[in-house]
Design a protein that fits this description.
With 184 residues, this protein is mainly α. It has a domain of 86 residues: Orthogonal Bundle (Helix Hairpins), CATH 1.10.287. 55% of the residues lie in helices and 0% in strands. Helix 1 runs antiparallel to helix 2 and helix 2 runs antiparallel to helix 3. It comes from Microbacterium murale. It holds the Pfam family Oxidored_q2. It is found in: Cell membrane. Belongs to the CPA3 antiporters (TC 2.A.63) subunit C family.
Length: 184
């Protein structure tokens, strides 16, 4: 299999630029990065496909091409189109609401950035004491609340299942249940 070094370099550059663009705060750059990643994925599948051959029909002779990378490429194109349509709608709505497509920091982001290592240690130690005492997920219950009952434990429950005697072909009819025997 002969792989072009040019395709590999172009694919690597597309992946690097796509990842770099997706790390930006601007939604337009995120869209451009996602499109670059989609094209890099299509190039990767083209490289993996190998040497082109004949269509894989019954009765063809010679080397046949593998249809799986072609199907994966079509799937990657559809997924890239759907996600980029969603991102375009998101960018349009963001522009309508705020006249900008930049994602801003909210209060939770700022609080997370200002948290120190001491705060992290305090948050980690809060749940340790309760975990040692807990034996079950049920509050004030020492055992599981599910109890398996047997029919023999309750005389008030009438068993209307057929008799346990196996049916044999010499019998004229299948065995009757307890209700049918009581009616006769």
């Amino acid at each position: 299999m002969d792989v072009s070094l040019t395709l590999i370099i172009v694919m690597a550059i597309l992946f690097a630029c796509g990842v770099y663009a997706m790390l930006e705060r601007s939604l337009t750059r995120v869209l451009i990065g996602f499109l670059l990643l989609g094209n890099a994925t299509n190039l990767l599948l083209l490289i993996v496909m190998g040497v082109p051959g004949n269509a894989p029909f019954f009765g063809t002779e010679g080397t046949l091409s593998d249809p799986l990378p072609q199907a994966l490429t079509l799937t990657a194109i559809v997924i890239t189109f759907a996600v980029s349509a969603f991102l375009l709608a998101l960018i349009y709505r963001s522009w309508q609401l705020g006249q900008a497509d930049t994602v801003e920091d909210d209060e939770a982001d700022i609080a997370l950035r200002e948290r120190t290592d001491a705060d992290e240690d305090v948050m980690d130690d809060e749940g340790d004491a309760e975990d040692e005492e807990a034996t079950t997920d049920f509050v004030d219950v020492r055992t599981s609340p599910i109890t398996v009952l047997q029919m023999r434990d309750h005389a008030s429950i009438r068993d209307d299942a057929p008799m346990d005697r196996p049916w044999s072909p010499t019998d004229s009819a299948p065995p009757a249940s307890d209700d049918e025997e009581d009616r006769t």
